[in-house]
Predict the structure.
Amino acid sequence: MEKTKSPEESRKLLDKITFDLTRSIVKRDELTRFWYFILVMFAAVGLWGWFIQIRDGLGVTGMRDYVSWGMYIANFVFFVAVSLIGFLISSSLQLLKISWSKPISRVAEQIAIAAVALAGIIIVMDMGRPDRFLNVFLHGRFASPIIWDVTVVTTYLTISVLLYYIPLIPDLALLRDRGGDDIPKWKMQLYKILALGWKGNDKQYKLVAHSMRVLMILILPVGLSIHTVTSWLFAATLRSGWDTTIFGPYFVAGAFVAGAAAVVILMFAYRVRYRLGEYFEDLHFDYMGKLLVFVCLVYLYFNINEFWVPAYKMKTAEGIHLRTLFTGSYAPMFWSAQMLGLILPILLMLFRFFRKPLPLTIISVFVLIASWLKRYIIVVPTLEHPFLPVQNVPDYFKHYSPTSIEIMITIFSFMAALLIITVLAKMFPVITIWEYAEEKGIDKEILAEPKK
Amino acid sequence: MKIKLLFVALVFLAQQGMAQEWLVPEDQKNIENPSEYNLANVKKGKDLYLLNCKSCHGDPGKNNGLPLIPPPPDVSSDIMQANSEGELFYKITHGRGGMPQFETTISDDDRWRLVNYIRNYSPDTEPLLVEEPPKKAKVLASVNEAERIVEVFAEYQNKDSVYVALAETPISIGAQKAFGTLPIGEVLTNKEGRAEYAIPESLIGDEQGMVTLVVDLGEGFITEDVVLDASKVGQPKPTPVLIKEEILWSTNENIQTWLLLSYLAAVLGAWGTIGYVVFQIFKISRAGKEE
């Protein structure tokens, strides 16, 4: 924290910060409209695909008797993974008092909310009868990992929303009091309601700090559970490739890789689009790069354990599965995900140059795509090799490939996630203004001052 | 490996044996049939044939025996009829290869009756079993649950197209099961065409002990089976619990206590804390109004 500035200086600085950080809210040009148009159009096409799927049944997908979890479940696991970054950046790093991560915290929370919300929606889209969704709650079996997953996804979504909202309250009050005339009226109205009559007294700040602390601690077990339970959906079976004890930590480590990459990409987008170079500095990208290398190394370590040990033993069923990954039909996907999405990024990011914003973002895009493919490799190949022989079925039962409907719905999920993030960015500042101002040595009294 | 070799050797030897003619010792060949060739014996022989022989040899004259090697010959075929009565008796008694021996399962007298039945299809003897065209018949039946009796009344259409009581005719009683009718017994009608069948105590019904009984006139009659829906005359079916208690992915009735408790504790803990935080939000709002 910098030392307290004089009131005059502080006011000037605060005006600048508020101006910069509300640019995302104020800015409305052709590009914004075009971006919304693209998102809404693709999302609508995906919804149309879903309509076809509801009308004609799950037969329109590539899923059959043997491979009954396809692209949807892979995509679900991917989104659950991405959402876990909220747990790492907004909670773990904050609790460890790592100050550079403060401006990134809201970016991570945006991603967490969008991803976990979509994870829930994808599961409903994977259902043949989504109208019976409520039965999961009414007649769920407590001994089934699926009900644990449903529970933990809802809990995590609620906590993520609270973790996003509570530090937002002082910002909303700030916007309510100091917001420029260029902010639409309805938004100002909304800020007024959501600010809950914030006055900025000590008691309120204490309550915010206390609630944040409780939430950050609560999200540790819940965040760990969300991805561990998702891994148990697989690990609680006897299938080769899934029946391993390290699946929980393996998934969690993989989740940090995917989430950190997503955060880097979103940071870069905000930096360029809203000219926030002074807020998402090179230093932040450098640290995020280091964090990404670290989680990648942990993930690599788990990957080695996950593949090297069974490959050494080559048990009969496990061997069939591993051979399809190493040299068989899934080899191109497997090796490109491992090489381009894990090993090469680790090597590159060790150099300072590749931790600069643009190179790091490009690397992150590769990492993110690879982590999506990784989920596909975890879900589908195992289902193609059941223990009982596959007999007397048509050929298209034996191998899974997603249909255009599945791809449409999957694209919908990406567009909808981006739409949630875009709406959040357009509604609320992408960095916590009051925390940032405090960091810069601006007194709380000045924050509470109404606009002249 | 040894067992495999032994098996191959056995099959080889067996084939060698079958390839040879089936020789019957001279003293056995010409034994006279002690059983008289009459309708009663031939009928009894037919019943035995249906029970023991038909599954391989098929229906007489239809050449629909099982496709085995060597093929079981049809009863009316020359191969079968070329045997003397003593030879037939010997072959039924001792068997060979695929043909089993019946020395221990069918009595001497009955085996001779089977020979009587086979002779019914010989070109040299006058057939005693005359295939009559099937007659139209009516069957009425009811179950007396208290006395555990099936009461049957049967009529058939005689030559003058008048329905008269069907006397001295076997009526078979079965119980309807998932994969067809299970025969449980047979009863003869009396002169008035009536019969009473006592249901055995050991009959097993569904979970409530309900049995659907089927009353059937044998071949030779055109009639519809009488199906007596769900009467309470059987033992309740024992229903073992197929789902083991306390296993993973189990139903809520069978859930492990520790699992349920940890789940509920985790859910209550998390949502309790969320509730606490929401309460803090209210407090923030209230703190704004205080000043």
User: Anything to note?
Assistant: Residues 88 and 115 of chain B are 7 Å apart (CA to CA). The mean pLDDT of chain B is 84. Chain B has eight helices and nine strands. The first strand of chain B starts at residue 135 and ends at 144.
